Predict the structure of Axin interactor, dorsalization associated.
Amino acid sequence: MSLSWKTIPGCCVHLARQLQKEVQSTNSSDFTEEQKKTLGRIATCLEMRSASLQCTQSKEEFKLEDLKKLETIIKNILTYNKEFPFDVQPVPLRKILAPGEEENLELEEEEDAAAGAGSTEAFPPRAPASQGTLLPRLPSEPGMTLLTIKIEKIGLKDAGQCIDPYMTISVKDLNGVDLNPVQDTPVATRKEDTYIHFSVDVEIQRHVEKLPKGAAIFFEFKHYKPKKRFTSTKCFAFMEMDEIKPGPIVIELYKKPTDFKRKKLQLLTKKPLYLHLHQTLHKDS
């Protein structure tokens, strides 16, 4: 195994997501439930390592020597029967779909609904809703600025029908490559008319001055589709670097699939429905 994933933040996150895909593949029955939990805990550790590498202070929350302990577990996952060496919870498992597959499944669902099929079907219990994967604010640096974005609410015409809604926040470069660890908010519990309220702070995991030209912060709105038993992206929004300024901001919603390269954007609706945010800048002088 290459050592690069131990030192590069993006590689840690990528490997964490690859582990999730492996567990959720069609051959996931190859793993016992305990092995799936172990893989989920490994994914959590990898994301913690990525977050530690984003920290500019010398003290790391998850050190390289800690990460090395995971290599043996990964290599021996089918026979590993010891207690996991770190007190962490598994990254919540989600159904991961290939580009375009989600849209096809939703089209089938709409056709089924129109035909009245399966309206009383009972579904097996699913995993508890994610409590989110939000990260703490980075340590301050002299002359550097940190950004906190409060996700206040999102306007949707069918807001009341969305099940277990949450937001995924990512920071991408012009090529759609992750610059920071991806974060999920906790599931929103308050719905009011055409709004879903989050009222949650997201700490951007890089100093503003260190974000490259052309970068953007993405907000993907996701919710659970019980008929197809997967979590779906309903729409997305994004902020570009020139929009980073203190105070409230309202940004437009776009149709899925999420276009991280911002090449073929289509507004979700002509109705005045937006994502409402509030920005706070922290600068250590």
About this structure: The CA atoms of residues 45 and 67 lie 8 Å apart. Confidence is low (pLDDT under 50) at residues 1-7, 56-60, 94-101, 105-129.
